[in-house]
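lol forgot to send this yesterday, sorry. struct tokens for the thing we talked abt
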């Protein structure tokens, strides 16, 4: 029976190759492209990293060398500072002794004026303390005093009719002491500060001979000789509320 479809008259489809339709030819491989900058990048990065490592190593070596030089410099500076501190300490010790001697002379000089100011012993003792305190605050204050300031301070305590006596030599020695201390360097001060109302501490205060050491502090008669940051070379001379005659 003859076929009546559209394939009528066409030969039967052959089977798989061989004998059938051959496969399409595959495309030939493309030729290799020349190496680009991107392909060479890893090698350049490696070289740069190696160069950076070498530079870091060199910097570390320089840092250690600089640290060694700095440590030696610190040792030299510390030694110089220690020597200077010892030298200053010795110099301030000498000037503090000069202050103690001058302080005693001023106190002794004020005694005769105080005795002339009052007849009763208690009044004389009180005048003596107040006169000394006024003079020390005047001549060892923040600014240097003139010789006439001694008499002005004494008149404020004893009255103008009571003679203080000549103070030219005391004034000269006070000015010389202040000048010597100023040349030493360091932060020195005459410390008049007191915690009023508290009992004297023998470690911090020197109590006025006629003052009751068990009574509260009331007055700084003569200041402490002190270099800031150090214990006082000379303790302050203090008075308390009730004194002994």
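and heres what i got for the seq, position by position
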């Amino acid at each position: 029976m003859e076929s009546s479809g559209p394939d009528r008259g066409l030969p039967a489809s052959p089977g798989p190759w061989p004998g059938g339709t051959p496969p399409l030819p595959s495309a030939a491989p493309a030729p290799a492209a020349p190496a680009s900058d991107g392909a060479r990048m890893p090698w350049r990065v490696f070289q740069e990293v190696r160069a950076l490592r070498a530079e870091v190593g060199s910097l570390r070596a320089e840092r250690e060398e600089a640290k060694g030089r700095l440590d030696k410099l610190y040792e030299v500076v510390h030694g110089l500072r220690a020597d200077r501190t010892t030298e200053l300490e010795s110099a301030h010790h000498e000037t503090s002794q000069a202050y103690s001697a001058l302080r005693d002379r001023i106190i002794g000089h004020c005694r005769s004026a105080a005795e002339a100011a009052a007849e009763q012993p208690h009044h004389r003792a009180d005048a003596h303390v107040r006169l000394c305190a006024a003079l020390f605050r005047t001549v060892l204050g923040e600014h240097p005093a003139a010789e006439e300031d001694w008499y002005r301070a004494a008149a404020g305590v004893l009255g103008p009719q009571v003679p203080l006596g000549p103070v030219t030599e005391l004034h000269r020695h006070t000015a010389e002491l202040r000048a010597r201390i100023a040349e030493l360097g360091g932060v020195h001060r005459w410390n008049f500060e007191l915690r009023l109302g508290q009992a004297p501490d023998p470690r911090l205060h020197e109590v006025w001979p006629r003052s009751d050491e068990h009574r509260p502090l009331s007055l700084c008669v003569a200041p402490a000789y002190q270099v800031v940051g150090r214990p006082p070379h000379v303790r302050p001379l203090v008075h308390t509320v009730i004194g002994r005659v």
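The longest helix spans residues 37-117. anyway ping me if u want another try
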